[in-house]
Design a protein that fits this description.
The complex is a heterodimer.
Chain A: H1 4-16, H2 18-52, E1 60-65, E2 83-84, H3 85-94, E3 99-114, E4 117-126, H4 130-133, E5 137-141, H5 146-150, E6 155-159, H6 160-167, E7 176-179, E8 182-191, H7 196-199, E9 201-205, H8 206-212, E10 218-219, E11 221-226, H9 232-249, E12 260-264, H10 265-308, H11 310-318, H12 323-356, H13 361-364, H14 373-400, H15 403-408
Parallel strand pairs in A: 4-9, 6-8
Antiparallel strand pairs in A: 1-11, 1-12, 2-10, 3-4, 3-7, 3-11, 5-8, 6-9, 7-8
Helix pairs in contact in A: 1-12, 2-10, 2-12, 9-10, 10-11, 10-14, 12-14
Chain B: E1 2-13, E2 16-28, E3 33-37, H1 44-51, E4 59-64, E5 67-68, H2 74-84, E6 85-88, H3 100-111, H4 115-128, H5 144-156, E7 162-166, H6 174-189, E8 193-198, H7 201-205, E9 209-214, E10 217-223, H8 225-229
Parallel strand pairs in B: 3-8, 3-9, 6-7, 7-8
Antiparallel strand pairs in B: 1-2, 1-4, 4-5, 9-10
The chains are: A alpha+beta, B alpha/beta.
């Protein structure tokens, strides 16, 4: 393989027969180009889907309630369902090992005021785990903690845009903010990849909100992060179980989807996963089909080449070439052509994908189409193997040429 | 050097087989200059192919340089060819995309000699056949006589025990024929065994021993005038 003389022989042979070599390489280049483009575009689609869900944690689940739409156990339709701390604790205690994060959420809308600047903002009263469920990024200070909840502290974490609205360039951390008439300490400032709306809100402890605004134990919804060790199917089953158990606990008809529902990312993930899986399967099918066609093309051309060079191989054999050296030469030539041609296809494909970049994101949901280094390495291995396969059959034929027959051929 | 005992060879043709060599006994000693004569179909090319390890005989014994040739696989045959035999063909059989020098150096490549050394050796042999200044020309830039001299240089470059020439002058005119035969004579004078196949009487007469074949058997085996003179 690393015999420089062998390489010299091969380069000479390729160089003297350029058209033939280019022709045989072309099919492989084309196959790899096609594969790269297809794979890159599907990756682009996948990127779009993933970024569509970037706002929340991939394992998040939300328990939501509305009015009942079905009568149950003598209770009428249209009954308003209210979640309470008791429900929150029920979930927490019952499914301990299946839950990674848990937070209650109460929706409020308050006027936030600092000096002369004031505005209305959505304020969410939550538990500390909420930070991970919502993928909140703390830029300054800290998020809510258990102590804040236990002490029902009047502390607030504000979004980047809230800070900009009320404080401009001035520092906000540690300042006191007027929230609906009460004074809150700003303990943190956050940003969120979910977009501007997610940064124009503020978080306060759920206990503080329950204490000050109504003195009750109501909560608007329960947010959960299921244990990431659960498979998607197990996570979906878990979501369904919570739904059933809570409906039973709250006297809701078992099929009343509207009154209480669990929005489960696992279901969305599974759908997207299946869709992407099907797409990848198609790409791999089409790609490998094209590649096989390419290999057969090379093999065909190599067989023709062997015929054309029958006499040469006969001469080489008469001069002392062993069958192994003939096989080695032909296979190596085939591997070389396949690899170079494949890499041309791969580079061209990668280049085209980089040109596409994010230009197709708006219209076609293709975001940053590209192929990963792992794919490039895999492609290299496949190419070398393809070259071996494409070269071996013709090489074997070349090696079996009887010198006398070869020398008679004109 | 070459000893053949009761050799038989047939080729299958469809269901029948063609019996080409019908019990050949031949002994060629080291340093001989032998020609095999016969019309086409007499079996002379078959004999040369078997002697040259390009084909396998059916029956009988063949000793090359004292070694019994039996159960040859391709690899073993290739190594023996490279070591003991040099070939000169009627149609020259040079590799068209290689220069004269590279053609001559090719057997040395299969012998495993490094590039620098083999090009030096090849150049010496090209010089010997008087074609040093044509070293970097491709075969299609050479005349028939020049091509055959390149082929002879290639046959000699590995210092074989036997040079096998199959109608070496068959494609040449009479003047170039003479120059090629002179070259073969010189080689023989240096002590190399030369084995020529021809159907030309004039060519055969320039060798030292003529073996005549007809229908797969040897009908005569005698020394020429030159042979007697030695």
């Amino acid at each position: 393989m690393f015999d420089i003389d062998r390489w010299r022989e091969i380069f000479q042979s390729i160089n003297k027969n350029r058209l033939r070599s280019v022709m045989s390489g072309f099919t492989v280049s084309f196959a790899i180009l096609l594969f790269t483009l297809l794979f890159g575009i599907v990756n682009g689609l996948s990127n779009s889907f993933t970024s569509a869900f970037v706002d929340d944690a991939q394992n998040s689940m939300q328990v939501r309630v509305r009015k009942t739409t079905k009568p149950f156990k003598g209770l009428q339709t249209g009954r308003e369902i209210q979640l309470r701390n008791d429900d929150y604790n029920f979930v927490k205690d019952t499914y301990k090992d299946k839950i990674q994060y848990q937070s209650a959420r109460i929706y409020k809308n308050f006027t936030l005021k600092y000096k002369n600047e004031a505005n209305n903002y959505d304020v969410r009263a939550v538990n500390p785990d909420h930070q991970f469920l919502e993928k909140t990024i703390i830029d300054e200070g800290r998020y809510l903690n258990e102590r804040d909840l236990n002490e029902k502290s009047k502390v607030i974490v504000i979004g980047r845009l809230v800070k900009e609205d009320l404080f401009g360039e001035k520092p906000a951390l540690g300042k006191r903010l007027n929230v609906n008439g009460s004074s809150y300490l700003i303990i943190g400032i956050f940003s969120d990849e979910g977009g501007d709306n997610e940064e124009r809100i503020a978080y306060i402890p759920v206990t503080t909100a329950q204490n000050i605004y109504g003195n009750n134990d109501y909560i608007s919804q329960i947010n959960l992060g299921y244990n990431p060790n659960l498979s998607l199917d197990a996570a979906i089953a878990f979501g369904n179980k919570i739904e059933r158990d809570l409906r039973k606990k709250l006297n809701i008809h078992p099929d009343d989807q509207s009154a209480l529902s669990v929005r489960n990312m696992a279901e969305a993930n599974k759908g997207v996963g299946m869709f992407m899986g099907a797409l990848y399967a198609i790409v791999i099918l089409v790609g490998s089909g094209t590649l096989v066609a390419g290999i057969i093309g090379i093999s065909n051309i190599m067989i023709f080449v062997i015929k054309e060079r029958t006499k040469e191989f006969g001469i080489r054999k008469a001069l002392g070439a062993t069958p192994a050296s003939i096989i080695g030469m032909v296979v190596q030539e085939s591997v070389l052509i396949t690899t170079i041609a494949g890499y041309l296809g791969l580079s061209l494909g990668t280049y085209i994908l980089s040109l596409i970049g994010n230009n197709l994101e708006e219209k076609y949901f293709i975001k940053d189409p590209s192929v990963s280094p792992a794919i490039v390495i895999a492609a290299t291995v496949v190419l070398i193997l393809s070259g071996l396969v494409a070269g071996y059959v013709p090489a074997k034929r070349a090696a079996n040429i009887k010198p006398i027959e070869a020398l008679r051929a004109d | 050097m070459i000893r053949i005992e009761k050799m038989h060879k047939s080729y299958p043709i469809g269901k029948d087989s063609l019996h080409v060599l019908k019990g050949i006994d031949l002994h060629i000693k080291e340093g001989e200059f032998v020609s095999i004569m016969g019309s086409s179909g007499s079996g002379k090319s078959t004999l040369l192919n078997i002697v040259g390890l390009l084909d396998i005989h059916d029956e009988g014994n063949y000793y090359l340089n004292g070694e019994l040739i039996k159960d040859m696989n391709e690899k073993k045959a290739a190594i023996l060819r490279n070591k003991f035999l040099g070939f000169v063909f009627q149609s020259f059989n040079l590799i068209s995309y290689k220069t004269a020098l590279e053609n001559v150096a090719l057997p040395l490549y299969y012998k495993g000699i490094n590039r620098k050394e083999r090009l030096e050796i090849a150049m010496d042999y090209l010089d010997k056949v008087g074609l040093k200044q044509w070293a970097n020309h491709l075969p299609n830039e050479l005349s028939g006589g020049q091509k055959q001299r390149v082929a002879i240089a290639r046959a000699l470059v590995t210092k074989p025990k036997v040079v096998l020439a199959d109608e070496p002058t068959g494609a040449l005119d009479s003047t170039t024929t003479d120059s090629v035969m002179d070259l073969l004579k010189d080689i023989n004078d240096e002590g190399m065994t030369v084995f020529v196949i021809t159907h030309e009487e004039e060519v055969a007469e320039q060798t030292k021993r003529i073996v005549r074949l007809k229908d797969g058997v040897i009908i005569s085996d005698e020394l020429t005038n030159i042979g007697k003179a030695v």
